[in-house]
Amino acid sequence: MTDQPRADVLLGVNVDHAATLRQARYRGRHGSAHAEPSPAAFAREALAAGADGITVHLREDRRHIQEEDVHAIAALPGVRLNFEMACGPAMVAFARALRPAAACLVPESREEVTTEGGLDVAGQLTKVAGTVAALAGAGVEVSLFIGPDETQVEAARAAGAPVVELHTGAFAEAWGTDAAAEELERLRRACIRAHALGLVVNAGHGINYANVAAVMTLPHLHELNIGHAIVSRSLVRGARAAVAEMKSLLRRS
Ligand code: PXP
After folding, report:
1. Catalytic residue among 45, 84, 116, 223
2. What count of other Cβ atoms lies within 10 Å of the Cβ of residue 1?
3. CA 155 to CA 44: how far, in whole Å?
């Protein structure tokens, strides 16, 4: 019997840094007719080039993405929106009204962060489980952005989330040093544990055109969320070329 070909890994394009660039010049005036770049226009280009989804993080401090951006992106035809958010009540209310396809709970305050930089699900299980339930009740698929730590993976399962996004930041930081192999191994163990618990496994943060091949060796990956590298390459090569190139690197066949 021959092995089934493995499905391509999906590409979620995080457009936050298109907003970062706009806010660098147009903070407080992002609604002006001259304000650019538009994260929604960037998202439209990304989708045209084959992005499987668009991710935005509406931070409580609104440092990059604004509410208007979220609504403009949610209105793009055919978009699968992944809404990154903190666990607080205001954001939960916003997300329940928005009803994106997916929401990813991320840490914003120091107390919510584990040593790996992901959400400390194990340390605030009741709060996270309540947020997962509130979002699931509005038809939103919830993922939890956690460090590659088996305790956090098990807590994510206990919190009722169907998806985890493993934080690849420590691996990306270690890239090019002897520590990278160890970080990749931690990610590999977390992927295996999450899959064994029935969780869908996504990953993201710090993934770029150089280190993505190593990330692609991880088992059970469903989707990678990539922002900074794609937005950066877009400045030189154009958004469609930057997205298409990353998409080709996520192909299994
Ligand atoms: N995944 C999550 C949960 C994030 O918060 C971010 C942005 O920090 C990313 C992925 C994308 O990270 P990057 O911009 O480094 O590709």
Report:
1. 84
2. 3
3. 36
pTM of the full predicted structure? Answer: 0.96
- Check residue 182 and report its DSSP letter: H
Is 71 assigned a catalytic role?
Answer: no
Cis upstream peptide for 77 (omega within 30°): no
Using the predicted structure, report yes or no on whether residue 178 has a pLDDT greater than 70: yes
Residue 233 binned pLDDT confidence (cut-offs 50, 70, 90): very high
DSSP state letters, 12-52: EEE-HHHHHHHHHHHTT-TTSTT----HHHHHHHHHHTT-S
Domain with 46, as residue range(s), is 10-249
Q: Which of 184, 188, 178, 221 minimizes the C-alpha distance to 206?
A: 184
Residue 239 lies in a domain: yes
120 pLDDT band, cuts 50/70/90, is very high
Say how many domains are in the chain: 1
Of residues 20, 61, 55, the one with CA closest to residue 38: 20
Has residue 108 been placed in a domain? yes
- Which one of the listed residues 17, 30, 45, 57 is annotated catalytic? 57
Instruction: Identify whether 205 is a catalytic site residue.
Output: yes
What's 33's domain CATH number? 3.20.20.70
1 alpha carbon – ligand 1 mean position (Å): 39
Residue 3 lies in a domain: no
pLDDT digits (tens, 9 = 90+) for 1-15: 445 667 899 999 999
Ligand 1 near 165 CB (within 6 A): yes
Within-domain flag for 146 = yes
Q: Residue 228, Cβ neighbours under 10 Å: how many?
A: 16
Q: Is the pLDDT of residue 79 over 50?
A: yes
